[in-house]
Amino acid sequence: MMDDSPVLQDLRCHLTGSTAASPTSIDPEHRTAVALPVAAIKSLLGVIQRSKATTMMGLQEDLRGATEEMMTFATESPGSLQLLGGRSHIALASGCELFMKYVTRAFLELPDFAACIAQVLERGERFAGISLAARDRIAEVGQAFIQDGQTVLTHGWSRVVSNLLVKAAEHRHFSIVVLEGRPDAAGAKAAKVYADAGIPTTVVLDSAMACAMESADLVIVGAEGVVENGGIVNKMGTYGLGIAARELGKPFYVAAESYKFARLYPLNQSDLPPMGPAAKLNFVDTASWEMTGGLVGKAKAPVNTDKDGKVDASSVPGVVQFKPNQIKVKNPPCDYTPAKYITLLFTDLGVLTPSAVSDELIRLYQ
């Protein structure tokens, strides 16, 4: 939006793949948007390019201010729901923190301010390419765990998981079962990607995860963040999937880039940081689609809209409506899956056990 600050304009452009001069709509299937930590780092590079600071202290103040602005937007602004695509801001925080650490380290290595800035900008511009290489590395180490004839169960949309599965399908024949991924149908959107790649794919309801687990051979999911104790923060439902996998003796693998390693140590769901504004949920009786002749999910004419131009849910047939303040509806985007439910992590650093994450975090931030 035109009234965004420069850093938020940059963040929006990097996440949508557009330019400030010609903004485009967000890809609804998240096929072209870059990873959130990469977008954060590229936005901070823009801060450095615009900064008038003449000392490292001044530059760090500019970067901290930009980081706080992005985090405030992610946690408080309703506009972040569309821009972040329902993703947790944990990955955003990880990218900013890792970049700030790198800037400090670069200055210690090159005390000359101008030389330090030049090096940070040069290496920062290469970061996007490095992140793409990280996905290929993860696909390389992870595909060996998928065998011919197996069924892979997955949840939500992850660029890393998608890259892994599509590359594995080039050498092996297996099938995929995807949970639908309410409320944004992320799993159904991911299923289109897998089917387009020629992989036999089935979509099931989120509530069918335990039932689907019986016929699955392994589970592979992505992560919004990998925390210090080896657990992960990911799309809501991942925790339940991990419990079901352990109960039925199925391996539970996580594919994630190392820049998503976060210095957090949650012990349960209540320890997660606030996730920002939650998307409004509407409940539609889609099972009645056939008997209504396809009316369910289609708006009546004329369409009722609110003051912001959004479609009024009451104009959609089959919507379950509550009286104001009658029912509380909770819609947290992510949950925390403890390390005990995770078999291995596929990362650009190699295949890790959950207990090895803390050591890698020390190396990343030392």
Q: Helices and strands, in N-to-C order?
A: HHHHHHHEHEHEHEEEHEEEEEEH
Please work out how many helical segments DSSP would assign: 12
N- to C-terminal separation? Answer: 38 Å
Arithmetic mean pLDDT: 84
Helix content: 25-40%
Main sheet summary: 7 strands, mixed
Major sheet: order of its strands?
Answer: 3-2-1-4-7-11-12
Q: Please provide the count of β strands.
A: 12
Q: What share of residues are in beta strands?
A: 5-15%
Computed CA radius of gyration, to the nearest angstrom? 22 Å
Q: Structural class of the secondary structure composition?
A: alpha/beta
Instruction: Based on Cα principal axes, name the global outline.
Output: globular
Poorly predicted parts: 21-32
Description:
It is a single chain. The protein is of the alpha/beta class and 366 residues long. 40% of the residues lie in helices and 12% in strands. The chain contains twelve helices and twelve strands. The chain has helices at residues 6-16, 36-50, 56-76, 80-84, 90-109, 113-125, 127-142, 159-168, 186-196, 209-213, 238-247, 357-365; strands at 151-155, 175-179, 201-204, 218-221, 225-226, 232-235, 252-255, 283-284, 319-320, 334-337, 344-347, 350-352. The strands form three sheets. It has a seven-stranded mixed beta sheet with strand order 3-2-1-4-7-11-12, sandwiched between helices. The chain has a three-stranded antiparallel beta sheet with strand order 5-6-10. Strands 8-9 form a two-stranded antiparallel ribbon. Helix 9 links the parallel strand 2 (175-179) and strand 3 (201-204). Helix 1 packs antiparallel against helix 2 (36-50). The longest helix has 21 residues, at 56-76. The radius of gyration is 22 Å and the shape is globular. The model is unreliable at 21-32 (pLDDT under 50).
